[in-house]
Design brief:
Endonuclease I-creI, twelve-stranded mixed β-sheet, 359 residues, 6 helices, 32% strand, alpha+beta, 19 strands, 20% helix, L,D-transpeptidase catalytic domain-like
Length: 359
């Protein structure tokens, strides 16, 4: 990796608040310990590029939003003037604040998928903090070949896998490469079934509106699964050195040692209550497996992970996620009922807008 500036580490703990306005987990809205990292550079642009490249190498799954938050903390350190009569116009370095958890040698994450939302959430688990990292689009299983809810662990990875159509057991496997439906990398998490995270040979489907299209596995954008591959190899797996995988196109399988296994949680929630820069919002999702019409869940289901769009469920979620709530329960129920009765699926409805509409 080529940097355009020199990185000088000046480590000391400082508090930092470099959070975005669209955090999906309220537990991250707290003060984190940060280290100061100083970049020697001739311009702020060079320093920003260098710290961005460094963090992408160090913590590959960091979102662009997080990287922007880090560069926004940059403090320019000017070079001293050559003499007392000249003002300095040249910078000597830029100092950034970086959460200490992003700089650790060994990292642990939680990969959480919400099936009807067609999205997964990445969190870092560090000490007592659960730190939101990014949101990724996914393709999930059809109603016939469901993606199962549950508490799982990522236990195996595969590099440049071959693929065999599960509906055609006698067919010839598709070799690794651009036409392979599994893409370049696979993360196994469900020991009881053939369900896992992987790349795709149809990346455009990752951004279609309805994404319940797979045989039960969870497809990822190829760039994202590449980031996850780098992150797992560099920051999660410490029992063995797999860095030779990074640029390899060879088919390989590796079972994670107990110390490197990380949690995966798959839930089925047909709504979200969070906030962004415009305030708290409610978003509804389609009950793609029809769980609201039947209490007969499959044996693979964890019923507590199936949360449907009732007024009480949404109200409970609102109180948990929106800490500065100043709306009465009675009014919140009216707002929720308006959204559930009139709202379109996969659209954000801001509480302040609905409140003004129903008054």
């Amino acid at each position: 990796m080529k940097y355009t500036a020199a990185i000088v580490f000046i480590f000391f703990l400082v508090p930092c608040f470099i959070f975005s306005q669209d955090l999906k987990n309220p537990i991250t809205l707290k003060k984190l310990d940060c280290d100061s990292v100083t970049i020697e550079a001739s311009s702020v642009v060079d320093a920003d590029d260098a710290i961005t490249d460094y963090m992408r190498d160090k913590f590959a799954i960091l979102s662009d939003e997080w990287l922007g938050n880090i560069t926004s903390t940059g403090k320019v350190n000017m070079l001293p003037p050559p003499d007392s009569l000249t003002l300095s116009v040249d910078i000597g370095s830029v100092t950034y604040k970086i959460p200490k958890s992003f700089l650790v040698d060994t990292a642990k994450i939680l990969w959480e998928l919400n099936i009807p939302e067609f999205k997964s959430y990445l969190y870092q688990l560090h000490n007592q903090d659960t730190i939101f990292i990014d949101i990724w689009n996914n393709v999930v299983g059809t109603a016939k070949d469901k993606t199962y809810e549950g508490y799982f662990e990522a236990y195996r990875i595969r590099n440049w896998p071959s693929w065999k159509d599960p509906e055609k057991p006698e067919s010839t496997p598709t070799p690794p490469g651009p036409k392979n439906p599994l893409g370049l990398f696979v993360v196994h998490y469900d020991r009881a079934s053939l369900r896992y995270f992987h790349g795709t040979n149809k990346n455009n489907l990752i951004y279609s509106r309805m994404r319940n299209l797979s045989h039960g596995c969870v497809r990822n954008d190829n760039e994202n699964i590449q980031k996850m591959k780098e992150f797992i190899i560099k920051r999660i797996i410490k029992a063995d050195n797999l860095e030779y995988w990074l640029n390899s196109k060879k088919s390989m399988i590796y079972d994670l040692k107990e110390s490197d296994i990380f949690p995966v949680r798959v839930l089925y929630k047909t709504f979200s209550v969070f906030r962004d820069g415009n305030g708290p919002y409610i978003e509804l999702y389609k009950d793609i497996y029809g769980y609201g019409k039947s209490s007969q869940y499959s044996q693979a289901n964890q019923k507590e992970l199936i949360i449907l769009s009732s007024t009480e469920n949404i109200l409970t979620e609102y109180k948990k996620n929106i800490r500065d709530n100043n709306i009465s329960d009675e009014k919140l129920r009216k707002i929720i009922e308006y959204v559930t009765n009139n709202g379109d699926l996969y659209e954000r409805y801001y509480v302040k807008d609905i409140e003004a509409l129903i008054e």
